[in-house]
Amino acid sequence: MKKLSFPIGIMVCMTIFFSMFAPAWADSAASIDEKAEILNKLDILSGSDGNYNLEAKLKKCDAAAFIVKFLGAADEVESNKDLYSETEFLDVSPNAWYAPYIGYCLEKGIITNSLSGKYDPTNGISEMTFLTMALRALGYNYDDFSWSETYEFSYEKGLVTEDTYPSKTMDNTEYYREDAVEALFNALKAEKKSEGTFIEERIEAGDITEDEAIEAGLLEEEETMEIVDIASVNRNKLIVTFNMAPEDDLDDVDIKIYETDDEDKTLTVNDKSVSENELTLKVASQTPGKSYTVEISGLVDESGNEAEDLTAEFEGYRVSETSSDYFMINKVEPVSKNVVNLYFTHPVNHNAEIPTYYKISGGDGTEIKGSPLTLSVNLIPDGSNGVSIYAKNFSFQEDEEYDLEVSGSLCSAYGVKLNDGDGDSAEFTGKDGENDSTPFEILSVDPLSSTRIEVEFSREIDQNIGGKFLNYTIKSKDNEDIQVSGAFVQTLGDKKGRSVILTTLERLDKDEDYKLTVEYLPDSYRQEALESYTVTFPGEYPDKDDLDIIDAWSEEESSLYIYFDRNLDPEAAVNTSNYRIKGISKKSYAAKPEKAMYTEKDGKPVVKLFMSKSDRFKEDDKYEITISYMKDLAGIAYSKDLEYDFEGGEEADTAFDIEKAGIIGSDAIKVSFSSEIAEDISNIRVSNYNLVYSIDGTSVSKLPTSVLLYDPLTVILKFDELDMDTEYTLNITQLKTYAGTVVSGADGQLSAPVISAE
Q1: CA–CA dist 752, 660 (Å, integer)
Q2: Are 119 and 12 within one domain?
Q3: CA 159/CA 365 separation, integer angstroms
């Protein structure tokens, strides 16, 4: 359809008008007043200041004028009054304003002569008569319908919409101007006998734009093919859904997929197929969370129309996750053709490394029952509540669906059975990728001091076996034993899980070379193991370089975090006598911490200092921390004082409280505290905790069967049984904070409602 532009005056007027009513039309059908405004702007209906006298009966003379204006013939009639004003109707004066309108309708066959020779121009018109005139304006005549079929035919053509019209036969003489407005509004979009609609003609003439006609409900927007959804089913499969079915012939269809922020990085399409409204694509492996753009050209819809180029974005496949307070499977991530990583909603310990807890099955008949012969299971050393499962002598097939079942006998680090003992399962899609191709080897052996050696491996190692010092032997060039007295795997810093610190009883000689032998050590996936693996390293250890403070910051008034440039000796790090703090803003301030904790924050090993109530920092005041006699992880002691300036943290609600008490299983409650508590016997006494609830209006209480101090912020309470529908309140008599302060609630105990599990 050719689009013509508005004359400027009309354009401005129409723009203002349609902006007034577009919201209403967009949400629902236009009201009769809005339809009247539309007809007025199209010069079909006359009125003054929005008053169209809609409640008045429609006169026959006005009906003729309506039809003429509806046909867009008003200018012709006004220009040829002499031609149309003379009619055969005895009661239509040629001088009357309506005479040429009646004459035009008479000439075009819209109205016919009467036997009486009269038209009765100022009398009311009946509904069937007006509908007949409107139908004739559309090009229909009595060859198409009879007088008795007027209602039914008008309903078929859309002039009237109430479903009672097909069965109506009696003419309606109570016909009003608002009824005519409704009929003419509908007639604008009704199909003419010849072809097309009057609204399309008005669009061609520039009286209204296509977009405005669509907004007004006078024109239906032609549906074209669009992408309505892109679902990333797995790493290698996409389903593109359209609003209509495309043809299944895809030979000439071009599909390009690329990273949204880099068009040169494409995703290869290996296969494509169509089923109903869906286009299935098999693609190269997507990067999880990466934004991709798909472009499709040459696609033909089911009607044979070629769609315009289609573009849409989607996010690379992410493994679906389950969140729960209960001990459940969180997600399964395929790593390679032999390895999947399994994550839980609770932290797990070495208990989760028992292969018999696991079973893998597939639609292709695969069934792997967990045993040391079929599966190797190892904790993921990044602290992410997961295990890595290595399938021995088996390869997962690309795009094949598998089910991983885990026994309900598996307990989390909180002591809760998986899904309360019922077990859990999750699906994953096979990944046909190679295992970690990095050779498993020792990358470096670096003496840190005369008695401390850091061994860095190319992969994360089995933490349990890696921490056994008997797995390591060191010999001098003269084949003399250098006895290894300790070994521990680094659990903090960027070498977490890949580095072992060895302690020796004898001192290393800087001028000698040594041989380190690893007797047996598997990687974290237990794909490979080092056996009798020997490397040579120089005994030269570095001269003592200065320990340094990278940063010190106070998040709140009662504590201070200190980040050093290297890992510290854990015992030295928590020795409070090594720390002194003095005021800069207020010279009178001088204090030592009550307690020190060596921990991890934001992936960095830090020392957290706890201040007494009387020594809390003031917000924005300046202070200086001095640290003396600190040791690093290599056991090197530094006599030089370390100094660092910091500002006091925000004033906070320092009142110790229960942050949350929530049910995590049918017999367990997890209690989280607002600040750290001490590793003290008083904090794990069963009698210190009391669960209160009501039975038939009677208050009842019970003690836990055991208390687990999981970490300084978390306590796990075990009970014989918990009722999920019962409202519990947890009362704690008192607790000792990490700083050594004994705290209790306002009423002599800490109290919190127990939250049901999600």
Answers
A1: 7
A2: yes
A3: 64
Burial of 684 (0-12, 13-18, 19+ CB in 10 A): middle
* Domain membership of residue 342 as a residue range: 329-429
> Strand 750-755 to strand 658-665: parallel, antiparallel, or no bridges (unpaired)?
parallel
CB 560 within 8 Å of CB 646:
yes
* C-alpha 385 chain-centroid distance: 22
Residue ranges of the alpha helices (H) in 407-516? Answer: 463-466
Torsion angle (degrees, nearest 10) of CA 506, 509, 513, 517? 10
Q: Tell me, yes or no, whether 735 lies in a domain.
A: yes
Same domain, 502 and 585: no
- Closest by CA to 168, choosing from 187, 185, 153, 180, is 153
Q: End of a domain among 396, 429, 462?
A: 429
- Is there a single domain that holds both residue 592 and residue 637? yes
Q: Which two tokens stand for residue 631?
A: 């040791």
- 3-state percent helix, strand, coil for the chain, nearest multiple of 5: 20, 35, 45
> Tokens at residue 99, please?
């005479």
Torsion of CA 589, 592, 597, 600, to 10 degrees: 40
Q: 32 and 141 share a domain? A: yes
Residue with more model confidence, 309 or 474: 474
pLDDT tens digits for 205-234?
A: 877 777 777 777 777 766 778 888 998 887
> Domain check: are 15 and 164 in the same one?
yes
**CB-neighbour burial class of residue 79 (10 A; exposed 0-12, middle 13-18, buried 19+):** exposed
Classify 179 as helix, strand or coil.
helix
Total count of domains within the chain: 6
Sequential DSSP letters for 330-391: EEEEE-SSSEEEEEESS---GGGG-GGGEEEEETTS-EEE-STTTEEEEE-TTSSSEEEEEE
Cα distance between residue 436 and residue 426, in whole Å: 24
Question: Cα 523 to the chain's mean position, in Å?
Answer: 35
Which of the residue ranges 202-216, 244-258, 541-555, 588-602 would you say has the lowest mean pLDDT?
202-216
The model scores a pTM over 0.70: no
On whether residue 497 sits in a domain, the answer given is yes
Q: Assess whether 67 and 200 both reside in one domain.
A: yes
Residue type, 64: A
How far apart CA 663 and CA 23 sit, in angstroms, is 50
Give the model's confidence band at 408: pLDDT under 50 very low, under 70 low, under 90 confident, else very high. very high
Of 546, 558, 575, 677, give the one whose Cα is nearest residue 619.
Answer: 558
**What would the pLDDT profile of 283-305 be if each residue is shown by its tens digit?**
887 888 889 999 988 888 877 77
CATH number, domain with residue 567: 2.60.40.1220
